[in-house]
Amino acid sequence: MTTDTLTRDPASTVPLSQMDVSDPKLFQSDTIGSYFTRLRREDPVHYCPESAYGPYWSVTKFNDIMQVEVNHQTFSSESKLGGITLQDMQSGEASLELEMFIAMDPPKHDAQRKAVSPAVAPSNLVLLEPIIRERAGFILDSLPVGEEIDWVDRVSIELTTMTLATLFDFPWEERRKLTRWSDVATATPETGVVSSFEQRREELLDCAQYFKGLWDKRANEPPKPDLISMMVHSPATRDMPYLEFLGNLILLIVGGNDTTRNSISGGVLALNQNPAEYRKLMADPGLIPKMIPEIIRWQTPLTHMRRTALMDAEIGGKKIRKGDKVVMWYLSGNRDDEVIDRPNEFIIDRPNSRHHLSFGFGVHRCMGNRVAELQLRIIWEEILKRFSKVEVVGAPERTLSNFIRGFTRLPVKLRGH
Ligand code: HEM
């Protein structure tokens, strides 16, 4: 890098005391990386006294993030204290007053998680695999070869929505409702997805209403291995208050949709930006299972999770005070060269590729990680059977968010064998 670029790069010139990494535009323009590099080097546990989200700590190194993750007695996820994102969950106009187990502490968290986790257990995934494979093949076979298409809409969204509809046993023709609700749940008016928080609230109440209908129907049927039936029949969840029920549904919809969707798109982009890795994959499709965790590390579809300190504590030598907001930047931890060898390189046969932070850690570690990996593995197996290349033919458009790291558009052309 020349001195000239260094002087122009705001990440290297802004005084540390004024550095605020919360601006969604830094993520949309994909320029956030150099800010995190500087923080890891100069101030790995960094205090930002003033931001659009109030004061917050940024934890940017892999091992410090782990230290926060494993200590839920000190670092709470509780929604009433602000929950799990930089943006407080229950304050101001953004408030939805939803209750979901990702934003609860043990013991309540543990009981609710236990009730729904069998739906994504390996034994159930074995049943799901052939259905997902058939649907993946169906989506890919419907695509035109040699014409420009939007990969996000035609493949990533379609496939993850189909899987989610399968997990919920959701009415098939209406499955795009799930996509819409997932988008709406994480939207703010700036994103253009909704025009106001009021509209978001109304659409999510429609979502709740719809699911209430499914819930009532399943309550009168014998138990089945779908998520709604499991929640209806489990003693830990069947008497849930209405907002808690809605919250847990939205958690499963958002958890299962946006993240996997953006990993599917992110993988295509990463392979195009690293043609030698694409060639390696074409020469040996057996590398797919190793490549999937590398794609998930590389993409880091959720940039962060947030906690609130329940008592004074210390991280990386810094004094955290009771009530402070602590943000674990997974996107930064996944580029920490003290833990990950050559972290800025995308290496599809990376040894130990599962050692990343994208799924979090500790009691809240992602419940759907195996479903996500399964979908990605299947889609890549089916892509390689059909196409010699998914070629990116234009600039990707990225999501305006400091939480979801993803794409709104990725123009590609498919090349046949
Ligand atoms: C929790 C990431 C896919 C359901 C989480 C957390 C992260 C995450 C970072 C919080 C971890 C923590 O606080 O330590 C991802 C990524 C995915 C993905 C990167 C895809 C590549 C899925 C899927 C589902 C799902 C497919 C459901 C079908 C959940 C649930 C939780 C969760 C229910 C809450 C767990 C708890 O609080 O105990 N996920 N997720 N996720 N995820 Fe995922």
Largest sheet: 5 strands, mixed
Span between termini? 40 Å
Quote the CATH topology: Cytochrome p450
CATH superfamily: Cytochrome P450
Give the C-alpha Rg: 21 Å
Q: Spatial order of the strands in the main sheet?
A: 1-2-8-5-3
Unreliable stretches (pLDDT < 50, length at least 5) are 1-6
Keywords: Heme, Iron, Metal-binding, Monooxygenase, Oxidoreductase
GO molecular function, one term: monooxygenase activity
InterPro entries: Cyt_P450 (IPR001128), Cyt_P450_B (IPR002397), Cyt_P450_CS (IPR017972), Cyt_P450_sf (IPR036396)
Cofactor: heme
Topology:
Layout: H1 3-8, H2 10-13, H3 24-28, H4 33-42, E1 45-48, E2 56-59, H5 62-69, E3 75-76, H6 108-116, H7 122-141, E4 149-150, H8 151-168, H9 176-185, H10 197-219, H11 227-233, H12 242-273, H13 275-283, H14 288-299, E5 304-309, E6 313-315, E7 318-320, E8 325-329, H15 330-333, H16 369-386, E9 387-392, E10 397-398, E11 407-409, E12 411-416
Helix pairs in contact: 7-8, 7-16, 8-12, 9-10, 9-12, 10-11, 10-12, 12-14, 12-16, 14-16
The structure holds protoporphyrin IX containing FE.
